[in-house]
Automatic annotation (TrEMBL):
Cofactor: Ca(2+)
GO MF entry, a single one: pectate lyase activity
Family recorded in the similarity comment: Belongs to the polysaccharide lyase 3 family.
Naturally occurring in which organism (per UniProt): Aphanomyces euteiches
Enzyme class: lyase
Record's keyword terms, sorted: Calcium, Lyase, Secreted, Signal
GO BP: pectin catabolic process
Reaction(s) this enzyme catalyzes, per UniProt: Eliminative cleavage of (1->4)-alpha-D-galacturonan to give oligosaccharides with 4-deoxy-alpha-D-galact-4-enuronosyl groups at their non-reducing ends
PANTHER family named in the record: PECTATE LYASE F-RELATED
Gene Ontology cellular-component annotations: extracellular region
Signal sequence bounds: 1-22
Protein name per the record: Probable pectate lyase F
Length: 265
């Protein structure tokens, strides 16, 4: 007996295939316009294998207040995205603390924008060495520290992302109790006024960062900007900065991959 998949199931599969094949181009630096507001009293869970399309509305929490760099947990997030799930076309508003959590890795975050980052915008936990979380398009602004916090194992792919007035775009956890080798690929990223570094990774855990086609708008000269910074990661205490710049296989890119301008790129 031949079973025919439902229209809804076929639509979900088609949407997932579309995400998998998506290629995000270099951002223009234009922020999206919100098409409405949605408020949750608890984190919204995007179930494994499903797609949540936020239709470019702004999503916030009704009962969470940002306390800047005070460490929170998934209870303070707006969305919890399960493995194999996709969150797309969403604006995360100011009334929240932990943004989006990918608690068990292997998530797709597509065209998601954080209007005012609190502690972190996106936190990625769990997974294995083969896990991959994809950040496709979107952007974030006003992050005192980092946008993407990678605590789990595996790889994070960041493509076509816009970062404005942020400390770091990506940080491999420097002081998690359990540490792993982590990898990050960054391409077609436009950063305006990065304060600390674009990418921070742990050399002693064999982390690897690969960067290509990065545009930075900054009043600093190119040789004064930190693009890929490597640390001595720890399981307690504070990590120690070891250096910055091209150092294969830790920080992999060519000088021509980084374009710096004092005006719009």
């Amino acid at each position: 007996m031949v079973q025919i998949a439902s229209f809804a199931a076929l639509a979900t599969i088609a949407s997932l295939l579309d995400v998998a094949s998506a290629v995000a181009s270099m951002p223009t630096g234009t922020w999206p316009t919100s098409l409405g507001n949605v408020t949750y009293s608890a984190p919204y869970v995007v179930k494994a294998g499903t797609v949540f399309d936020g239709q470019m509305k702004t999503y916030e929490r009704s009962n969470v207040v940002c306390t800047e760099q005070a460490e929170g947990g998934k209870e303070s997030a707006v969305f919890l995205v399960e493995p194999g799930a996709t969150l797309k076309n969403v604006i995360i508003g100011k009334s929240q603390a932990e943004g989006v959590h990918c608690e068990s890795h292997d998530c797709t975050i597509q065209n998601v924008w954080w209007d005012d980052v609190c502690e972190d915008a996106l936190t990625i936990k769990g997974g294995s060495a083969s896990s991959v979380t994809k950040v496709i398009g979107g952007g974030a602004r006003s992050a005192e520290d980092k946008i993407i916090q990678h605590n789990g194992a595996g790889t994070v792919s960041i493509e076509g992302f816009y970062a404005q007035d942020v400390g770091k775009l990506y940080r491999s956890c420097g002081s998690c109790k359990t540490q792993y080798q982590r990898k990050v690929t960054v391409t077609n990223v436009y950063a305006v006024n990065p304060k600390v570094t674009l990418v921070g990774i742990n050399k002693n855990y064999d982390d690897q960062a690969t960067l290509s086609n990065i545009k930075i708008k900054s009043s600093k000269k190119a040789d004064k900007l930190k693009v890929c910074t490597y640390f001595q990661g720890v399981t307690s205490g504070e990590p120690k900065q070891l250096g910055n710049g091209i150092l294969p296989p830790t920080c992999q890119y060519a000088a021509s991959d980084i374009q710096v301008s004092a005006t719009a790129c």
